[in-house]
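Predict the 3D structure for this chain.
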Amino acid sequence: MKKLFITALIGLFFFTISPLATAKILADTEQETTVINIVKDAYPSVVTIEIEKTKTNANQPEGFNLFNSFNSFIRLFTQSSPNGQQSEQKYNIGSGFVVSSNGIIVTNKHVVSDQSASYNVVSNDNKKYKVTKIYRDPANEIAILKINASNLKAVKMGDSDKIQIGEGAIAMGTVLGDLENTVTSGIISGKNRTISVDNPSGKKDELKNMIQTDAAVNLGNSGGPLFNTSGEVIGVNTVTTLFGENIGFALPINLVKKDVDNYKQKEGL
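Done. Predicted structure below.
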């Protein structure tokens, strides 16, 4: 009788825990499916930014030193030439995303900081477009690029004022100049962060109202989109730090929307 009682208790335990375990499995599967669907939908809208520059000697192009990491990233993908010789250099330098079907691209200002260089946008299907105009926001880490293209797939932009700490986040971009559309996921770790970075002149700039995330923001996917779990862009991946893991920052998309609207109005688009 005692044995039967113990067996009954064990059976009751498994009967009780099984629905909980099943619910967790279903929740994990649903979350995974959500990420997969967001990524599939976003692929055509996420682009790579390529720099094109003629250099003499083995000097390196100037970059925007984000926690001393961006210049290091540039040096990784720069071909040296013998002293006194000129060489045309092309390499991927960052990421961006389409915000208008007629060829308006958003990226970080530091990605296109070299005004002596020219830039190309490379789409997910390896089509290359020459950047014809660049607007660099004087106050924020935002740049708007114009390419001659039509019928591009634009992202859906969300409302960064409504994000909540702990909600899911998905980052996309070209990592290390070669790994296009790399996807990382995590959560929103903090809001309204203020961080200090070096600008091209070597002076300090303060970036305010930044979104903190533990979704990996790696070198090269600066300028790429940060999505929420509804598939809306809530930020622009901007800063990674060498001083800690799982600490990345993104500009809130509401800043970007203002710049895009102003740019369209100015250009009559």
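Residues 4-15, 58-80 have pLDDT under 50 and may be disordered.
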